[in-house]
């Protein structure tokens, strides 16, 4: 090869190298997101915003070096399964999933695409991971809370409304987590002198009928356990509790902010921020099997005094002093 031709070839290669490098640097990763909530749910929008903001802080910008595809299932089990199939078929680099009801169909559809989950109550019992410390498969993430929190809901409800002798437990009977939360409440109910009644939450009609039937007898209260249908029908449940004058305990902040008597639980937005950090680590080469499932480190009590007054309840000052937030 003549010297002039060799120099020309090298010059072309050198000129092309920055283009190759830039292409590699701007190659987009693909994140799929499966949410059990509705797109119009303001709390859900807060969760997604927290996730995306944390991703941006870690260097992942939607539309630049990452593509994010989101599906909103609005608490519909059939839609969740359909979206799980659809998203895995897209072969994303990673999937963020909310709740056990979305993780289950995803893991049936794929055991190779990494899945980071949030707000899952019992990933070991559900078979999603081998153990909390060593997940062992293609999924890891963040616990919703431990079932023992159910005892705290009943304790707080009885403290705020000492006259109640009956509690309707709003739950999803098709979800094993609903059974677990029910069991935790049931284990302490005798010590509080309370009779429990399950109120199922498969759809709006069933919720309305169940709450109305329960409210026919006096001295009743409600505990709303965590489930995708309960989240999707949150506003309806709050309205029914107000209509029937039922003191009610909720598992998440937005219910108290939306007019519920009180909530006690973790900050789920923090889980989405933490999930973004796990997504970042996996996209950079770490494996879900090596990232431990984490539990919430803090629980917050929020009390809505306006609702308490509407129900004719005088919330003890000692309880208000313990509250993380009191809404006037």
Description:
The chain has two domains: 9-144 and 268-290, 3-Layer(aba) Sandwich (Rossmann fold); 149-265 and 300-327, Response regulator (Rossmann fold), CATH 3.40.50.2300. 45% of the residues lie in helices and 19% in strands. The chain has 328 residues and is an alpha/beta fold.
TL;DR?
This protein has 13 helices and twelve strands.
Tell me the strand order in the biggest sheet: 7-6-8-9-10-11-12
Write the element-wise H/E pattern from the N-terminal end onward. Answer: HEHEHEHEEHEHEHEHHEHEHEHHE
Shape assignment: elongated
**Average residue-wise pLDDT:** 89
Low-confidence stretches: 1-25
- CATH-derived topology of the largest domain: Rossmann fold
CATH architecture of the largest domain: 3-Layer(aba) Sandwich
Helix content: 40-55%
- Radius of gyration (Å): 24 Å
Assign the CATH class of the largest domain: Alpha Beta
Determine the strand fraction and express it as a percent band: 15-25%
Q: Ends: how far apart? A: 85 Å
Total number of strands? 12
Put simply, the count of helices is: 13
Main beta sheet, described? 7 strands, mixed
CATH homologous superfamily name of the largest domain?
Response regulator
The total domain count is: 2
Structural class label: alpha/beta
């Amino acid at each position: 090869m003549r010297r002039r031709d060799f120099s020309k070839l090298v010059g072309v290669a050198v000129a092309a190298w920055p283009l190759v490098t830039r292409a590699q640097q701007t190659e987009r990763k693909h994140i799929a997101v499966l949410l059990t909530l509705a797109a119009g749910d303001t709390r859900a929008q807060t969760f997604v915003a927290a996730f995306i903001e944390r991703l941006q802080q870690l260097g992942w910008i939607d539309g630049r070096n990452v593509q994010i595809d989101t599906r909103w299932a609005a608490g519909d089990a059939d839609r969740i399964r359909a979206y799980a199939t659809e998203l895995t078929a897209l072969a994303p680099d990673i999937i963020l999933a909310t709740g056990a009801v979305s993780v289950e169909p995803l893991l049936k559809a794929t055991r190779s695409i990494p899945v980071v989950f949030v707000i899952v109550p019992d990933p070991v019992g559900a078979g999603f991971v081998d153990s909390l410390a060593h997940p062992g498969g293609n999924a890891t993430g963040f616990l919703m809370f431990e079932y023992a929190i159910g005892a705290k809901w009943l304790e707080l409800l009885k403290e705020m409304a000492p006259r109640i002798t009956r509690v309707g437990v709003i739950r999803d009977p098709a979800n094993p987590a609903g059974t677990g939360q029910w069991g935790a409440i049931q284990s302490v109910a005798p010590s509080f002198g309370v009779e429990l009644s399950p109120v199922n939450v498969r759809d709006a009609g069933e919720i309305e009928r169940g709450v109305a039937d329960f409210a026919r007898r006096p001295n009743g209260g409600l505990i709303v356990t965590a489930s995708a249908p309960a989240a999707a029908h949150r506003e309806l449940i709050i309205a029914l509790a107000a209509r029937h004058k039922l003191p009610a305990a909720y598992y998440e902040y937005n219910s108290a902010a939306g007019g519920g008597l009180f909530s006690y639980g973790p900050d789920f937005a923090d889980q989405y921020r933490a999930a973004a950090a796990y997504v970042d680590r996996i996209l950079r080469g770490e494996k879900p099997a090596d990232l431990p499932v984490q539990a919430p480190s803090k629980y917050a009590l929020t009390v809505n005094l306006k609702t308490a007054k509407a129900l004719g309840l005088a919330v003890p000052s000692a309880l208000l002093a313990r509250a993380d937030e009191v809404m006037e």
